[in-house]
Amino acid sequence: MSPVYIARVKEVAARSIGGEMMIMSARDSMLFSLNETATAIWQAADGATPLAEIVQRSVCARFEVDAATALRDAEELVEGLAQHGILKVSNLPIEETP
Amino acid sequence: MGCAIAQDVVIEIGAMPVLVRTSSPEFLQILRERYGGFVNSSAQPVFEFEVEIVRPGTIPTAIGDDEVLSVRFEAGRWVLERGDFHAELDPALHHGRIWQSATPYAIDAAFRIVHSLLLAKQGGLLVHAASVVRNGRAFLFAGVSGAGKTTISRLAPPDATLLTDEISYLRREADGYAAYGTPFAGELAQPGENVHAPLAAIYLLAQGTENRIDPVAEADALRAVLRCVLFFAHDSELVGHVFDSVCHLVQRVPVRRLTFVPNFRVWELIV
């Protein structure tokens, strides 16, 4: 199975408010609130690190969850965020556009 | 053949003077009456509008409904359209043109949009909220239609000054936020006073069986205030500015939930 890479979309505004990561899509002004694990994945989405490695480093190492479950949940999460246009997903590393 | 001479009036809302020029004396009179307390002929305008009065039915708009508003950015200009007006604004030239019939409703909508666009880059906001000044401090009461904005405004004590019962105008200042009066009235059908004061608190309105104030977590405050912000443009840069402004606002100004029964005693809690 080919690795999955994820990168934050630039056209969103994200702020941590009261311990919650709040993200607003500039495309449709929708507001998203991420929980702790989703925030960890969002913050690590650099386009260069495979999702499995992000999950291992940022989720399994910090939260009590097994790797397979964490990866499955992460894949669902990134698919949902990608559908809303706030995360890019690719099977190749995602280069940052200026 | 007669020759109409253009005349203008400067309407200053939120310390943001906007000049409106028209060759229609009738429309000029409508503006002076509607925005009476906000006319300031000596102010230096930050934006100028040319208003062309056209017959109803001949407005160059693709929108057939007076309730549907379209705001888009095209070739360096903002294009605003509703069933009763078509406007084009050039932010670089600080100049716009509007085609409308001789009623105040279209220019009122255009003003709200222009102010929301101008404010966005300055950290200011238009909020669907009533606001009132008491003892030199402003209090904002936010809520969707029916939440009680007009009711809380009606119940305000005699020493309170109404800024608006419908659209509040907030500007970021060095040490917080200031609320300004606006002519944008709700059910009260009464323009606010053209004064401003430091914003002391934001109350999220809920009608209930007792008067009480409850704390609101920052993230919940952000969600609630965002729902009440008036912003019309789907522009990523400006949406980002508005989001940042609301985040900043809820971190700087206390946000509380105000549950109230509609009687004047609720104002005993507003301090």
Keywords for this entry:
A: 98 residues; Outer Surface Protein A, domain 3; three-stranded antiparallel beta sheet; 3 helices; globular; B: 271 residues; alpha+beta; Phosphoenolpyruvate Carboxykinase, domain 3; 2 domains; seven-stranded mixed beta sheet; 5 helices
Describe the fold and architecture.
- The complex is a heterodimer of chains A (98) and B (271).
- Chain A is of the alpha+beta class and 98 residues long.
- Chain A has a single domain (5-88), classed as Outer Surface Protein A, domain 3.
- Helices cover 37% and strands 30% of the residues of chain A.
- Chain A is built from 3 helices and 6 strands; from the N terminus they run ββββαβααβ.
- Chain A has helices spanning 36-44, 51-60, 67-83; strands spanning 5-8, 12-17, 20-25, 31-34, 46-50, 87-90.
- Chain A has a 3-stranded antiparallel beta sheet with strand order 5-1-6.
- Chain A is globular, with a radius of gyration of 13 Å.
- Chain A starts with a strand and ends in an 8-residue tail after the last strand.
- The mean pLDDT of chain A is 90.
- Chain B has helices at residues 25-34, 104-120, 149-154, 218-228, 236-252, and strands at 7-13, 16-22, 47-53, 70-74, 77-82, 85-90, 95-100, 125-134, 137-142, 161-164, 167-173, 176-180, 196-207, 212-215, 255-260.
- The longest helix of chain B has 17 residues, at 104-120.
- With 271 residues, chain B is of the alpha+beta class.
- In chain B, the strands form 2 sheets. A 7-stranded mixed beta sheet of chain B has the order 1-2-3-7-6-5-4, with helices on one face.
- In chain B, strand 8 (125-134) and strand 9 form a beta hairpin.
- The termini of chain B are far apart.
- Helix content of chain B is 23%, strand content 36%.
- Chain B has 2 domains: 7-120, no CATH class; 125-268, Alpha-Beta Complex (Phosphoenolpyruvate Carboxykinase, domain 3), CATH 3.90.228.20.
- Chain B is built from 5 helices and 15 strands.
- Chain B is globular, with a radius of gyration of 19 Å.
- At the A-B interface, strand 2 and strand 3 of A face helix 4 and helix 5 of B.
